[in-house]
TrEMBL record:
Keywords per UniProt: Hydrolase, Protease, Thiol protease, Ubl conjugation pathway
Organism expressing this protein natively: Aspergillus oryzae (strain ATCC 42149 / RIB 40) (Yellow koji mold)
Pfam families documented for this protein: Peptidase_C12
Molecular function per GO: cysteine-type deubiquitinase activity
PROSITE patterns given in the database record: UCH_DOMAIN
Gene3D superfamilies: Peptidase C12, ubiquitin carboxyl-terminal hydrolase (3.40.532.10)
GO CC, any one term: cytoplasm
EC number(s) stated in the UniProt entry for this protein: 3.4.19.12
Name this polypeptide is given: Ubiquitin carboxyl-terminal hydrolase
GO biological process, one term: protein deubiquitination
Family: Belongs to the peptidase C12 family.
Length: 250
């Protein structure tokens, strides 16, 4: 049983459910503009071997999309071993559990823009900047509640989701992909930020001058997903199984 909301989102089995986002720079730029995210550009990354050199740098945040079989192979075992993240630490990034159906693209976007350069790309006084200020001191469950109830995020997501280049699925349709956000902090630590996991995952530390699409950065971020893609029939970078967008602060 479902109920359609004014934005076009639906309540399905008691859960607010969105139209999935596409992972492309145009959609993310649209979403960023709507949410008053400034001085950021979004770039398709079409090749990883060798690491891309024709893009602006540093790329310290990535929005990654993987087909469900690839994602499951790379993360199902790890997910079962992680403790639930219940208390926030001021040295950790802002991590938000996902409680909205088909909103993993929005969650990856938020995890990147809220944490990249400590949120300095959010326009001062904007709704998203105010949301960040509220989220910082909240426990993860309360963060999820605030995001779930934020109408401005729902409106922005649904508007951006309709602007993709492929056919727009309905909220009730199965979504065979999952988004993940990666961010390099000012201290060099690399974080995997995924609302579907039990908490934020620290992947390692990069040296000064290394960004997320350096050889070391790719190994700490999408490396194990790439290995999983090789093992899944039909998977592989540049095909239908994986896509990657890099964020660059201007």
């Amino acid at each position: 049983m479902s109920t359609t909301l004014p934005t076009g989102a639906k309540i399905i089995n008691g859960v607010k459910t969105f139209i999935p986002l596409e992972n492309n720079p145009e959609v993310h730029t649209h979403l960023a503009t709507t949410l008053s995210v400034q001085s950021l550009t979004f770039h398709d990354i079409f090749t990883l071997s060798p690491p891309p050199r024709d893009l602006p740098h540093p790329i310290n945040a990535l929005i990654f999309l993987a087909a469900a079989p690839i994602y499951t192979r790379a993360r199902s075992t790890l997910q079962s071993t992680l403790p639930k993240y219940t208390t926030t630490n001021e040295t950790d990034p802002i991590w938000i559990p996902q409680t909205i159906g088909h909103a993993c693209g929005l969650m990856a976007f938020l995890h990147c823009v809220l944490n990249l350069d400590d949120g300095r790309h959010l326009a001062r006084g904007s709704e998203l900047a105010k949301l960040r200020e509220e989220l910082v001191s909240l426990a993860p469950g309360d963060r999820a509640r605030v995001v779930y109830e934020a109408l401005f995020l729902e409106e922005a997501h649904m508007d951006a989701a309709r602007g993709g280049s492929s056919g727009v699925p309905g909220p009730e349709e199965d979504n065979g992909f999952h988004f993940v956000g990666f961010v390099k902090g000012g201290d060099g630590r690399v974080w995997e930020l995924n609302g579907g996991m039990p908490g934020p995952l620290e992947r390692g530390v990069l040296e000064d001058g290394e960004d997320l699409v350096s050889e070391a950065g790719l190994r700490l971020t999408v490396g194990d997903f790439m290995e999983a893609a090789k093992e899944v029939e039909g998977g592989g970078y540049g095909g239908l199984g994986i896509s990657l967008v890099g964020l660059v602060g201007v």
